[in-house]
Amino acid sequence: MSFQPYRSPSTGRPVRAVLFDTFGTVVDWRTGVAQEVAAFAAAHGHTLDAGAFADRWRALYQPAMEAIRTGERGFTKLDTLHRENLDEALRHFGIDPDQVSSGILAELNKSWHRLPAWPDSVEGLASIRRHYIVGPLSNGNTSLLLDMARNAGLPWDVIIGSDMTRTYKPLPEAYLRTAEFLDLEPGEVMLAAAHNSDLHAARETGLATAFIARPTEHGPGQTADLAPEGDWDLAASSITELARGLVQQLQS
Amino acid sequence: MSFQPYRSPSTGRPVRAVLFDTFGTVVDWRTGVAQEVAAFAAAHGHTLDAGAFADRWRALYQPAMEAIRTGERGFTKLDTLHRENLDEALRHFGIDPDQVSSGILAELNKSWHRLPAWPDSVEGLASIRRHYIVGPLSNGNTSLLLDMARNAGLPWDVIIGSDMTRTYKPLPEAYLRTAEFLDLEPGEVMLAAAHNSDLHAARETGLATAFIARPTEHGPGQTADLAPEGDWDLAASSITELARGLVQQLQS
Question: Are A122 and A152 in contact (CB under 8 A)?
């Protein structure tokens, strides 16, 4: 028996590295952020819907990166954008951030470094890692992704943060520079993501693609990204299921 | 009992990340390269001293990087420098590289991706990792360091290759940009290395320092770097011994 790497029908290449979108695909940002927001609110006597606060904070994520993608603003790492967006989210909920100590806000901002993995993530990544390079392909900066990995036990081989590619998905350079650091052709890299838009951009730049369904990423009322919306190479309901699709044993 | 991180006397800061020089400190480049050179020579009917070939190949390493450090040449990754130096080493041993297929030379060049760990490295890194971030701080490029880690089982948390900092040690930026990716102050990062010159440069930029003795890195007749030549924070004869020095339990 010899191991045959999965060959992507769309790229025609054997996959060498399986890289993962993180927020939503590997970790449950809404639950993790809401828990820390609820603790912050309780400690400071604020009454708020912590899930709604997490949604609001997250809603400011794409607009903040967009200013950088368009070149309107120089590259700024995600920790800084999250911190700015926290001020705006607090104001939206009637809390004046200037009345809260900067140390407490810095700690709350680090909730993005401590997000819990989905139940299948650690086992699925460990399975895939036996045969493929595994890493994040995330808009998170290196120190955020590193803290997240140590906290959640994510067994990455390598972490290439957006502060290393100095760009944000879905710009093509985010995918291409990551493949270049790995010394791989784009077609030898697979992006696994819970977001169809991310997979569209990855395919445009020549990567292999896998959809992972995360139907409660946005809470119980989620309406988008419930199913694959493209003919992605693979589609699975968990990272453990993706692992089974990637591991094919052929008689040698 | 609570864990107290090691506090560097020279920086006055608790250490958060312990980063390692790799070639010589974590892996035995001379043995690894010589083995692959010997196999190449045997397969192609050449008679040569494989250890001397490894020494010659390695001797071209610093001069090749120096052209980049001075700005004479733009940043070029170590895989490319190794490949150029291989041609020169072959010629030195009377072998015309143009008479060897490029595929075979590319494979021989990858011997640097497959270097064996010193016997204490994997266990020592795993111990240190329980309490500190561990990673390489090497002139190797990311894909080289990643392959080395997968082959030798080095349990890095993060790999920041020289193609990410786009400079070579001992220039200050090599150390400082690495600390910046980790979002740490230089004094919270410790460099562990078998080379006093590397530790001198690290201390100049404000890092904590640890010497690891590797008295056979250059073979049985080694004369340099047999002992610490500075008042480095720690000195050890193995990474397992360094781990013991870094793990101090204090009554809380």
Answer: yes
B231 to chain A, closest Cα gap in Å: 30
Is the predicted pLDDT of residue B250 greater than 80, yes or no? no
Query: Same domain for B137 and B94?
Result: no
How far apart CA B229 and CA B217 sit, in angstroms, is: 17
Angle, CA B51 vertex, CA B45 and CA B52 arms, to 5°: 90
Mark whether B43 and B150 lie in a shared domain.
no
Give the B-side interface with A, CB within 8 Å.
Answer: 79, 133, 141-143, 146, 149-150, 157-161, 163-164, 181-184
The CATH number linked to B140 is 3.40.50.1000
Contact B133 A142 (CB under 8 A): no
Say yes or no for a CB contact (<8 Å) between B157 and A164.
no
Residue A236, H or E segment: strand A234-236
Q: Which residue range is the domain that position B221 belongs to?
A: 2-28+115-250
Q: Is B8 left (phi over 0), alpha (psi -120 to 50) or beta?
A: beta
In chain B, what percentage of residues exceed pLDDT 70?
A: 98
Does the pLDDT value for residue B2 go beyond 90? no
Chain A with chain B: Cβ pairs closer than 8 A: 47
Which parts of chain A have pLDDT scores under 70?
1, 249-252
Q: Cβ–Cβ contacts within 10 Å for residue B169, how many?
A: 24
Question: What is the layout of strands, in order, in the sheet containing B234-236?
Answer: B133-136, B17-20, B189-193, B208-212, B234-236
Residue pLDDT, tens place only, B102-142: 999 999 999 999 999 999 999 999 999 999 999 999 999 99
ipTM of the prediction = 0.96
Residues A17, A51: one domain?
Answer: no
pLDDT digits (tens, 9 = 90+) for B171-185: 999 999 999 999 999
Task: Say whether the peptide bond before residue B9 is cis (omega within 30 degrees of 0).
Answer: no
- The reply to whether B170 and B152 lie within a common domain is yes
Q: What percent of chain B has pLDDT over 90?
A: 96
Q: Identify the closest residue of chain A to B177 by CA–CA distance.
A: A164
Q: What is the spatial distance between Cα B158 and Cα B53, in angstroms, rounded to a whole number?
A: 32
Determine the Cα–Cα distance for residues B147 and B121; give it in Å rounded to an integer.
16
Contact: A182, B143; criterion CB under 8 Å: yes
Q: Which residue has the tokens 């610490």?
A: B228
- The residue in chain B having the minimum alpha-carbon distance to the alpha carbon of residue A80 is B183
